Amino acid sequence: MTTKFVIVGAGPAGMRAAEQLVSAGHRPVVIDEAHRFGGQIYRQPPYGVQRERSDLYGFEADRASAALNRFASLLPQIDYRPNTLVWQVAPQTLQLVRDGRDETLPFNALILATGATDRVLPFPGWTLPGVVTLGAAQVALKYQACLVGPRVVFAGTGPLLYLVAWQYASHGGQVMAVLDTAPTGAKLRAVPKMLARPTVAAKGAYFVMRLRLAGVPIYSGVRLLGAEGREHVTALRWQKADGTQRTTNCDAVGVGHGLRSETQLADLAGCRFDYHSVDQAWLPTRDASGRSTVRGVYLAGDGAAILGADAAELSGARAALAALEDFTIATSTALASSLEAESRRHARFRAGLETAFALPANWAADAPDDLIVCRCEEITAGELRECVKTTGAREMNRLKALTRIGMGRCQGRMCAPAASRLLADAAGCDLKDVGRLRSQAPVKPLPIRLMREAATAAPVPFEERDD
Amino acid sequence: MNALLNRLSTVAPRAPVHFELDGVPCTAQQGDTVLTAILTQATRLREAEFSGQPRAGFCLMGACQDCWVQTVDGRRLRACSTLLEDGMRLSTRRQP
């Protein structure tokens, strides 16, 4: 019997996992929700649109080119499926939808490389047209050759804040301000850990320097008070570290507070989750090789824990080796251990990043009652607090059942980091103790017709899933 | 301001694609998503179901589900991940 290897995601982790499997003589299936491979970080323009890779990827152009070219050369040896969504994981089976048609795909080994989206701590007015994530601002630029704006404020925290601001400034965007919610002192405290990857730290310092030279005002330790506008955003109100309030006129706001792993498929596969103190989130448990707690299911890249593109390549390759080992194919242990050693260096650096770009400690306590937390169902912070007060809810799924938070179309992708912090604050407990939202199939909206047609593959029963 | 997205002047325009937005004939470019086609000439994609407030997408990578757009014949498209096709008839207003 030939082993069926399936990779979900075609970003840095998925592409490298495919390469490792092909070099061992296999023909993996690679499922990609996007039109073209590359993931978010190496996202490519649509077919037929010519762009220079140096223009698209900046400092990372060589790395992006290498990854994209290698994967392109593999295409004849893999079963690459773009425009395809995995909407359910059953034992040894995936449910897919492509071009409006449902399909069942059996697997022996499943490598989940599902990536991440922005983690956002909302402020009043964040649902206004023109307020987008930092990742969205990048997608507009890389994928669609457009800038949000023209006048744009970048706000929040994390390395992406400065990278995107510089990408916009260097592509003709009018960057009105960069507003970092983390205090200046946090960056200094993080220096020892960030020396684990000095060139990456140096790139960050370079973006800051170039932004300053371009005359872009940069503030640290700010508090975001609200976006203003009726039809679309026209200004952002914020508070300086010294307490004075400012209003910056703008046509767009890019916001993000680091990244958040996409873990729904691991959850549906029945993987155990543990609380991860660096990411401040419940993440699927994995060992150093990328094995999850479910036999035949492996985790790689930012979908497993936020470590960035370079680490994603390493963990993608390592997870593929683990899958090969488990299906009794001899692999190089030297390569496996060097990948693991290199990954540990990335983890040290990542801990430094979380210190440098610390989340606003008082965000939940400061959030006004009329703040919309859930974009889909328009549930406010006040409704969540009231629910905690009147029902004694202490756990995220209970809060969801009672308020509909996280029950909308995004399944909590956008609101869960904020909602869990509000719950912990209102209930007076640790973030860890409020748990995490259980994932539900389909992980994204599908036409009801498809659900009817879908093969009746039995999902992993709830009682066999870890909560 | 009457658009949320501005095209880079350094990237050559592509072949035109014709579509209809709220009953008005419009032109965008090959390779545009539905979101780009609309937001290079308007500031909203839809109205929120509960408050009726305008929405125009948020994550642009298929995660937030904020950018659903109705077609005149009642279908729903996720604008950030759907490429524009010639002859599409799109509506940003709530339909009766």
What this model shows, in words?
The complex is a heterodimer of chains A (467) and B (96). Chain A has helices at residues 12-23, 53-57, 61-74, 134-144, 159-170, 184-194, 198-213, 264-268, 309-326, 333-356, 363-366, 381-391, 396-403, 416-427, 448-453, and strands spanning 5-8, 29-31, 79-81, 84-90, 93-98, 101-106, 109-112, 116-118, 131-133, 146-148, 151-157, 174-180, 218-220, 223-228, 235-239, 245-249, 252-257, 259-261, 273-276, 281-284, 297-299, 372-374, 379-380. Chain A is an alpha/beta fold and 467 residues long. Chain A folds into three domains: 5-117 and 260-330, FAD/NAD(P)-binding domain (3-Layer(bba) Sandwich), CATH 3.50.50.60; 120-257, FAD/NAD(P)-binding domain (3-Layer(bba) Sandwich), CATH 3.50.50.60; 363-434, BFD-like [2Fe-2S]-binding domain (Arc Repressor Mutant, subunit A). In chain A, helix 4 packs parallel to helix 5 (159-170) and helix 9 packs antiparallel against helix 10 (333-356). The radius of gyration of chain A is 22 Å and the shape is globular. In chain A, 54% of the residues are buried. Chain B is mainly β. Chain B has one domain: Ubiquitin-like (UB roll) (Roll), CATH 3.10.20.740. Helices cover 6% and strands 30% of the residues of chain B. At the A-B interface, strand 9, helix 4 and strand 10 of A face strand 1 and strand 5 of B. Strand 10 of chain A pairs antiparallel with strand 1 of chain B, so a sheet runs across the interface.
Helix content of chain A: 25-40%
Number of strands of chain B: 8
CATH topology of chain B: Ubiquitin-like (UB roll)
Ends distance of chain B: 28 Å
CATH architecture descriptor text of the largest domain in chain A: 3-Layer(bba) Sandwich
**At the fourth CATH level, what is the homologous superfamily of the largest domain in chain A?**
FAD/NAD(P)-binding domain
Biggest sheet overview of chain A: 5 strands, parallel
Poorly predicted runs of chain A are none
The structure class of chain A reads alpha/beta
Percentage of residues in strands of chain B: 25-35%
Tell me the greatest interface. A-B, 52 and 43 residues
Average pLDDT across residues of chain A? 94
List SSEs of chain B in N-to-C order: EEEHEEEEE
Principal-axes shape call of chain B: globular
Task: Give the DSSP E fraction of chain A (strand runs of 2 or more residues).
Answer: 15-25%
| Rg over C-alpha atoms of chain B, rounded to the nearest angstrom | 13 Å
Order of strands in the sheet with most strands of chain B = 3-2-8-6-7
CATH architecture of chain B: Roll
Number of helices of chain B: 1
